[in-house]
Amino acid sequence: MPGRGKLIAVIGDEDTCTGFLLGGIGELNKNRKPNFLVVEKDTSITEIEETFKSFLARSDIGIILINQFIAEMIRHAIDAHMQSIPAVLEIPSKEHPYDASKDSILRRAKGMFSAEDFR
Amino acid sequence: MTEMRVDQHNRLDAQLLLFMDQLEALEEKRHKLNSLIEEGWFSIAKARYSMGNKQVSVLQYASEMEPLVHVEASLLEGGTAEFKCERRENKTEEPKNNTVEDIGAKETGLRRRINTKQKGVKEEEQETDPQVKTKAESSTPEHRDPLKWFGILVPQNLKQAQSAFKEVITLSAEIASLQSAILATRKEMQMKEKQEKTQPEIKEE
């Protein structure tokens, strides 16, 4: 069954969020929580993790875009996410270029999650 | 017996080739995505340079936003997810059609305002309709284009950033679909490898 139009969420630094919001993915109103989080120097890891988990719990989010350096902070939470929807996509940031060896999805594809191989 | 094994090997080989093709496609799309994102940041930086540091920041975000892009997510057989990007650009045409009618109504409304004393109630009724329509029009297009958060006349760089990020969003949906397909292919390969390992034991017996 095809899903209804879902949102794209973003967890990123200021310029990343500004760019994607310019692209038109942002949702912000009094009734619902926003589908983006601007991560600044003083943003706590707890807040990032809670936001990420809240995005996973929402049924109206299809894709979560996250800067890779932020993904590194909550790597355990991202690795624990095994469902196909929402999809988690790691993107580079200005100071941290994309590193394929750190990407959860690619690591899984290479079979580095050895526990699954032995199930 | 041996034919079956040859078939299984062939299937596994085909699966592996598919996996490699998917990885190659993913790498290409990733590369394009990364360069588009960098292009977008660069354009934002140029716009910030011309407009001022505080003119392109979180402070400019609207207090209410409506998403213009949606993603249709569908689960295929085998647990693969497919994502298709849909952008609400067609709706801007509808208010344009309405404006043709409403400008006329506005003008008649404006003209009648001069003679409000004589017409009274009838005017109010007729004015509410264009007012409602104009409010809807004024709220939706301004509400919709995030470029307008940064001012009415924005530099070309900001528009370039917007178009770069729009392309990034479309590409993200494709990459998400490809990632899901890659994981599904990997799972299938693992299952077939396990089957191969168990089957020779049975055949030996």
From TrEMBL, chain A:
- List GO terms (cellular component aspect): proton-transporting V-type ATPase, V1 domain
Q: Name one Pfam family in it.
A: ATP-synt_F
Q: Which Gene3D superfamilies match?
A: ATPase, V1 complex, subunit F
In terms of superkingdom, the source organism counts as Eukaryota
Q: Does the keyword Hydrolase apply?
A: no
* Secreted keyword on record: no
Q: Which NCBIfam families match?
A: V_ATP_synt_F
Q: What does the UniProt record say this protein does?
A: Subunit of the V1 complex of vacuolar(H+)-ATPase (V-ATPase), a multisubunit enzyme composed of a peripheral complex (V1) that hydrolyzes ATP and a membrane integral complex (V0) that translocates protons. V-ATPase is responsible for acidifying and maintaining the pH of intracellular compartments and in some cell types, is targeted to the plasma membrane, where it is responsible for acidifying the extracellular environment.
Its quaternary structure? V-ATPase is a heteromultimeric enzyme made up of two complexes: the ATP-hydrolytic V1 complex and the proton translocation V0 complex.
Q: What family does this chain come from, according to its entry?
A: Belongs to the V-ATPase F subunit family.
User: What protein name applies here?
Assistant: V-type proton ATPase subunit F
Q: Which organism is it from?
A: Labeo rohita (Indian major carp)
From TrEMBL, chain B:
Matching Gene3D superfamilies: 1.10.287.3240
The protein's superkingdom reads Eukaryota
InterPro entries (alphabetical): Vma22/CCDC115
The record's subcellular location field reads: Cytoplasmic vesicle, COPI-coated vesicle; Endoplasmic reticulum-Golgi intermediate compartment; Endosome; Lysosome
What do the Gene Ontology cellular component annotations say?
COPI-coated vesicle; endoplasmic reticulum-Golgi intermediate compartment; endosome; lysosome
Q: Which GO terms describe its biological process?
A: vacuolar proton-transporting V-type ATPase complex assembly
Q: Which GO terms describe its molecular function?
A: unfolded protein binding
Q: Where is this region: Disordered?
A: 86-143
Stretches of Basic and acidic residues bias are at 86-96, 130-143
Keywords in alphabetical order, please.
Coiled coil, Cytoplasmic vesicle, Endoplasmic reticulum, Endosome, Lysosome
This protein's assembly is summarised as: Accessory component of the multisubunit proton-transporting vacuolar (V)-ATPase protein pump.
- Which PANTHER family does this UniProt record tie to the protein? COILED-COIL DOMAIN-CONTAINING PROTEIN 115 (PTHR31996)
Q: What is this protein called?
A: Vacuolar ATPase assembly protein VMA22
Source organism per entry reads Culter alburnus
- Lineage, uppermost ranks: Eukaryota, Metazoa, Chordata, Craniata, Vertebrata
